[in-house]
Amino acid sequence: MKAVRFSRFGGPEVLEIVDLPEPQATPGRIRIAVRAAGINAGDWKKRRGPVDPQLPQTLGHEAAGTVDELGEGVEGLAIGDRVFGLCAQGAAQAQSAVLDHYAPMPPTLDFAQAAALPTAVETAARALDQLGVHDGATLLVNGASGTIGGVAVQLAVARGARVIGTARPANHAYLRTLGAEPVAYGPDMTDRVRALSSEGVGYALDVAGSGILPELIDLAGGPDNVLTIADFPGARRHGVRFSRGDTGRALYALHRIGPMIEAGLLALPTVVTFPFAEIAEAHRAGEGGSVHGKLVLLID
After folding, report:
1. N or C: less crowded end of the chain, CB within 10 Å?
2. What is the pLDDT of residues 125-143, one digit of tens each?
3. What is the mean pLDDT of the chain?
4. Which helix (H) or strand (E) holds 232?
């Protein structure tokens, strides 16, 4: 099968599409014929090196496609079913991939839309769980208009929380459609939040990693009420929790998101697709910030 791989660290030019042995579904897992795979910022961080010093490396943790092999003990699925999910091996950007966690695709979605969801849905649900966001709470999301931020806003609203979201003014109308009250980034952001909620907020979630953890701590009444998924050094410096994908995973959310989508309760992120052969161009676009939306690789 064809798969994305790099054998040395560097720029997008080190990415190759190579022939690799087809993976096999092990107990409890499924293999899919991949139709679309998500691309994330972590991909080019790995490629630049050395997040993981081992070489060569494959890429991709989220994918959508059709089941073509069932591991022992898998129930409720059949060959040919459309599914989406997560590949713990980091090898989803390939013609075949083994998914460790998966769910049936919502019927109204195409493969690119489905491949854009697993990481954002799991990350957002995990962060809300770890914060303890509940009905009646007030949550501030820093970086609310991005893929993960937008999902976090909507999941929090579905829980009954009031959500205030930071974003550029150009994205404020979009945030309102998600159910958030928008405020602008930049100087005096704290004052703008307090103008909406005079006593501050109950919880703050940092998705953007823009260096404003002290302001979030002030607004949320202390570091225990703040969580970041994007600022590890800042979390250590200020005593804020950093949410990692390898602990406390909210995998249940993959199954719950489908009914929300079908009921019109979750707006999908904007998807920007690239052909399989243009993986290097996709990395250039993502790193350079020239596209806005979730990057998805279409697999031949």
Report:
1. C
2. 999 999 999 999 999 999 9
3. 95
4. helix 232-238
Tell me the whole-structure pTM to 2 decimals: 0.94
Q: Quick: pLDDT tens for 227-247.
A: 999 999 999 999 999 998 765
Considering the four listed CATH numbers 3.40.50.360, 3.90.180.10, 3.40.50.10090, 3.90.45.10, the one that applies to the domain covering 2-117+268-298 is: 3.90.180.10
Q: What are the beta bridge partners of residue 64?
A: 36, 84
Q: CATH second-level architecture of 121-242?
A: 3-Layer(aba) Sandwich (3.40)
What is the total residue count of the chain?
300
Q: How confident is the model at residue 290 (pLDDT cuts 50, 70, 90)?
A: confident
Beta strands in the chain (DSSP E): 2-6, 15-19, 30-39, 57-58, 62-70, 82-86, 96-99, 101-104, 138-142, 162-167, 181-184, 203-206, 226-228, 241-242, 271-275, 294-298
Question: What does the pLDDT read at residue 275?
Answer: 98
Q: Show Cβ contacts of residue 212 under 8 Å, excluding neighbours closer than 6 positions.
A: 142, 189, 206
Q: Is 187 helix (H, G, I), strand (E, B) or coil?
A: coil
Cβ neighbours of residue 291 closer than 8 Å, sequence gap 6 or more: 272, 285
Q: For the chain, what are the domain ranges?
A: 2-117+268-298, 121-242
